[in-house]
Design a protein that fits this description.
heterodimer; A: about 325 residues; mainly alpha; 13 helices; about 75% helix; B: about 300 residues; disordered N terminus
């Protein structure tokens, strides 16, 4: 039954991935102007800079002289084989460039995930345990404000406080967690808090609601009646069951965190795929834009798949729609 | 023939009365729900600010005055000045106009395409439904901000690009809402009755079925306003949204970033403004959700 669910879910993924690839392919085609010049990184006014031979060579190489569906299929074939072409600026293979940047994005996403969970669990549990008290209102106020606050503004405010005024943490930069763990923690601290807020705010609300629901269940009442210590009732019983339901929120928000990494990586000069995408947009390096968007979107799709499967595993009552 | 159409006519009259009574109930629940009321007040306040911007601004929002650059809040410049000496308060006031302009366009575009797509998917056959919904899944498969960045990168910045980039993002949510309601309603007795009276499928869809989507759509619109304003600010902050010297809150933050060490307060107010308006729309959306939850009326 579980295996059948996984197969069905993967089967559903194929048309979505194909449509995603089509959309990414079309990114370059909807740019106003001649796509050959766009892919060469030059303006229409600069057309005279290149000879007709050069123009036709690129046109032929990229297949722009063929029907669009043929162009798409040959592009897809090259992508599947791991060939995304060369960056217009650095002339380096795009796959290589992206996979150099990918670990930094993943490290930051993991740091943000841990930060978000570390904030949300205690805040949600305390809010639920002390319902309608100052602590509850504070936690809910934090959650509401956290959802409303733009992450780039939070990033700027944290830089002002911790880097400019207090001088405790570096405002920008990156260090590898394996070569310089302390440096990594120092550099990752602010961006992880900013990205972690995207998870912490909705998760706090969710854990509070789930905990309130669980705490009113008969099994919890029985546990209290049996005289079990409060920590055991709260952590082993109520929180454990609340967290099962929270897995979906964590997973979906993590996928969103990855999608929103562009801004945070740009503000903190974090050398991830998100920043690569923005650099590509600024320098009009469209193959880099295409590659980065494709990688982030595909990762997002697979995280969502993983979340669905984990949730089904945790709660077998879930049905495929 | 007249006799046949009577039950439908009665249903329509009943339905109008029930809509009115539900609307009055909804107003009562909103007023009773303090957070939703706060949301409504915040949203209305910003809407009035946007409409009356020229009267509420104390200075010309676009007038550059280098001699006055990066000033702290004072009686002359209530929220200080930016790196070009422009009055921050006046730019925030005009920024409300920009935010609503972008959000209205994006939400309209999303609803304009999303509602018919959802209706066709729900009312059409299995294959039409599957094909349309897979396209919607593909749009959802992109993280929202990423798709907007990709589209703006391709189309170039500016108001119309933002409408398209943000509007496309919200099409699937409208389509899904409408499809779900249509699927739930299309086999109901009142739809069968309308069909028997010879009403066309199109009129059944628009006059009988779609009014049932109003409540969830209203919630969606409120939340989408928040999304659109946040996305416009983010894109403008990245330099991919509206071009300078437009009074956009995101652009204001982008312009002040190099001067953070000199005047941190200049970054504080535009961000606070974005947070406030998004909080307002979110609270209103949450409140509307409570309003349209039938259990509310039983309390």
């Amino acid at each position: 039954m579980f295996a059948r669910y996984i197969v069905q879910r993967i089967w559903q993924l194929i048309p979505v991935l194909l449509l995603v690839s089509m959309a990414v392919f079309l990114i370059v085609r909807i740019i106003p102007g001649d796509p050959v010049l766009v892919m060469m990184g030059i303006d229409a006014e600069e057309r005279s800079r290149i000879s007709d031979e050069q123009y036709h060579a690129v046109q032929q190489q990229l297949g722009f002289d063929r029907p669009i569906y043929v162009q798409y299929l040959s592009w897809l074939k090259r992508i599947v084989q791991g060939d995304m072409g060369l960056s217009l600026r650095s002339r380096r293979p795009i796959f290589e460039t992206i996979f150099e940047r990918f670990p930094a994005t993943i490290y930051l996403a993991i740091a943000a995930l841990l930060t978000g969970v570390a904030i949300a669990i205690p805040a949600g549990v305390i809010a639920a345990m002390r319902q309608n008290t100052g602590a509850d209102y504070a936690a809910m106020g934090f959650a509401l404000w956290g959802i409303a606050m733009p992450n780039f503004w939070l990033a700027l405010m944290l830089i002002v406080l911790f880097s400019v005024i207090l001088g405790w943490l570096p405002a920008i930069g990156y260090a590898s967690p394996f070569e310089n763990p302390v440096g990594f923690l120092q550099h990752a601290c602010l961006p992880a808090v900013v990205m972690g807020m995207d998870l912490a705010a909705p998760l706090t609300r969710y854990i509070r609601a789930e905990m309130i629901e669980q705490l009113s269940q008969d099994y919890v009442r029985t546990a209290w009646a049996k005289g079990l210590p409060s920590r055991m009732v709260i952590v082993r019983h109520a929180l454990k069951n609340s967290l099962i339901a929270a897995v979906t929120v964590v997973g979906l928000q993590t996928a969103r965190i990855l999608g929103g990494s562009t801004i945070v990586e740009t503000v903190f000069s974090w050398p991830g795929v998100g920043r690569l995408l923005i650099e590509g947009v600024y320098s009009r390096d469209y193959p880099i834009v295409q590659g980065s968007v494709l990688i982030i979107a595909v990762t997002y799709v697979f995280i969502n798949l993983f979340v669905d499967i984990v949730y089904k595993w945790l709660d077998p009552r879930i049905q495929l729609e | 023939m007249k006799q046949e159409s009577l039950p439908v006519a009665l249903t329509a009259a009943d339905s109008a009365n029930s809509h009115l009574s539900r609307f009055l109930d909804a107003c009562r629940v909103i007023v009773r729900n303090r957070l939703a009321l706060l949301g409504l007040i915040i949203v209305c306040a910003w809407l009035v600010t946007a409409l009356l911007a020229p009267y509420l601004a104390t200075h010309d929002a676009y007038e550059i005055n280098i001699a006055n650059r990066l000033q702290s809040p004072s009686s002359d410049h209530w929220l200080g000045t930016d790196s070009l000496g422009r009055d921050t308060y006046s730019r925030i006031v005009f920024g409300a106009r920009t935010a609503f302009e972008v959000a209205v366009g994006a939400v309209f575009l999303g609803a304009f395409f999303g509602i018919p797509i959802g209706a066709i998917a729900g009312f059409g056959g299995r294959w039409v439904d599957a094909a349309l919904m897979r396209v919607m899944d593909a749009i959802i498969a992109f993280p929202g901000r990423l798709l907007a960045i990709a589209l703006v990168a391709s189309l170039g910045g500016g108001l119309y690009s933002l409408y398209i980039a943000l509007g496309i993002n919200s099409i699937p949510s409208y389509a899904r809402i409408v499809r779900a309601v249509v699927l739930g309603q299309k086999e109901k007795e009142y739809v069968q009755a309308a069909r028997m009276t010879g009403e066309s499928e199109l009129s059944i869809l628009f006059l009988q079925v779609l009014p049932n989507c109003l409540s969830p759509l209203l919630i969606r619109v409120s939340l989408d306003f928040a999304h659109a304003i946040l996305a416009e600010s983010s894109l403008s902050f990245l330099g991919l949204g509206l071009p300078p010297p437009t009074a956009s809150w995101g652009l204001m933050l982008k312009e002040i970033t190099p001067f953070l060490q000199l005047q941190p307060m200049a970054a504080f107010f535009p961000g606070l403004t974005i947070s406030l308006i998004i909080l307002g729309f979110n609270l209103l959306g949450d409140g509307l959700r409570d309003v349209f939850d039938p259990r509310q009326y039983e309390r």
